[in-house]
Amino acid sequence: MTHTSHASHSSGAHGAHAAGHDSHGHPAGLVGHLVPTSTLMAAGLALLALTVITVAVRYIDVGEFNLPIALAVAVVKATVVILIFMHLRWDRPFNLLVLIGSGLFVLLMMWFTSMDVGENIPSMSKGNAPEAQTTLNAKAPGAPVAREVESH
Amino acid sequence: MSHITAPNPTPAKPASDAHGAHGAHDAHGHGHVPHLAHHFDNLQQQFDSAKLGMWLFLATEILFFGGLFVAYAILRMRFPEVFSYASHYLDTILGGINTCVLILSSLTMALGVRYAQLNNKRGLVICLLLTFMGAVGFLVIKYFEYEHKIKQHLVWGPTFYVPPEAHGHDPAELKRMEEALKSVETATPTTITIDVKDPTPFAIPQVAPKPTVEPSTVKAAARGPQGVAPVVTTAIRTSEAEHSPSHEEAAHPALHLADPHMPPNTHLFFAVYYAMTGLHGIHVVVGMIVIAWLIWRAVRGDFNSSYYTPVDTGGLYWHIVDLIWIFLFPLFYLIH
């Protein structure tokens, strides 16, 4: 979020400005920010590399860290897409605020729901509920048969 | 400027409205700036307004998918063993290829925006075509993945627990199975009798934490012979090792039903898998329609460095489709 570059840019890209190329070689009357090809290519290559790495890492078992690592890589990839491909690095900050706001509300929903489910899980039996098992017996003869787990 | 009054299916509303309004307000002194609506100071402000509108729409898309991500989180909290087990039925390589296809199509979309900014019509059209082909490639691979799973009855409902028949779906066989199921529904649980011509055993997945203690506590299968899991699986395993696929094995390619380690409720994984990838697939189709419309307008020469708002907002939509997949891929395909 470089405020200075954004400010200088948007003044330069004003629709009213005179014809001719500006100092950066942009076409006349350009609206928005022109991202160099090299930046786009680098972002694309980084995304492909991260994908290959995550697929390779899938076969290494790091126990409970598998999910956090996979999610962290996904967040990095998403950040690259958002900042470079979606131009948010050069965009008005308010667009970023909209994006972060929606993400926060999803996390809030997930947090509250997880709290509720987390409270209830210890009281749930591990197998199917009795009614579910009856239904499965009737409708799907091959269905797995569950017993309650004694450990609870 | 002989410009379009085409219907505008993308949320790039402001620009389109701006355009429509433009003709009517020429007399007010804005005539020398094409595409600029009367109520905007300049093209930059108009462009920023369109993008803000698009970002608000994308926020609703994130919330839309957010509900399904919450559903995923709850199911995974509740049945972690189901997710680590069922994930192995997904083809990581195909999923990885699809991720790369979407990333590359995102790249060509971003390059397309750049070409539009540079007044390069040819580059823009080529990039949009490549993006469109990426979307087609993604859906083709997805089709093969879905088809393979549906044939093996790796689906979301009771069908998950019905062994698929050999050589596709023989109508007579399906009818017979339906009748057998009907008789099960009407019978009382203690007197279940199903007429199965080919009583190939498919095991009851073993769900007890202490499997070796008492096999008899595992209920007998409703179909097939006395389905005590350990015995049956040894039989299947040895037959696999000894000879080429027998008739019985060919008749029941759904290996998940023969797997004693399948945890209960495994079908829930496939329920949330089809729900999330399916909704994403619908977004890919919508993105294809938007890109096709952009190609049509780009070929006609509608876009230039001061007016390419539909390319930019359509591109944002395509990038959010990529973004959702970036999260779906590890959550379904990369569970160890």
Write the layout of secondary structure elements.
The complex is a heterodimer of chains A (152) and B (336).
Chain A: H1 3-12, H2 37-57, H3 66-85, H4 93-120, H5 130-139
Chain B: H1 13-24, H2 43-78, H3 80-86, H4 92-117, H5 121-151, H6 171-186, H7 229-242, H8 247-251, H9 255-258, H10 267-300, H11 309-333
Distance between the termini of chain A: 52 Å
Number of helices of chain B: 11
Can you summarize the main beta sheet of chain B?
A: none
C-alpha geometry of chain B: elongated
**Order of helix and strand elements from N to C terminus of chain B:** HHHHHHHHHHH
Please tell me how large the radius of gyration of chain B is. 28 Å
Series of secondary-structure elements of chain A, N-terminal to C-terminal:
HHHHH
Describe the main β-sheet of chain A briefly.
none
Description:
The complex is a heterodimer of chains A (152) and B (336). By secondary structure, chain A is mainly α. Chain A has helices at residues 3-12, 37-57, 66-85, 93-120, 130-139. In chain A, α2 runs antiparallel to α3 (66-85). Chain B contains eleven helices and no strands. Chain B is 62% helix and 0% strand. Chain B is an all-alpha fold and 336 residues long. In chain B, α10 runs antiparallel to α11. In chain B, 41% of the residues are buried. Classes of the chains: A mainly alpha (152), B mainly alpha (336). At the A-B interface, α2, α3, α4 and α5 of A face α2, α4, α6 and α11 of B.
Please summarize what this structure is.
Chain A is mainly alpha-helical. Chain A has helices at residues 3-12, 37-57, 66-85, 93-120, 130-139. Chain A is built from five helices and no strands.
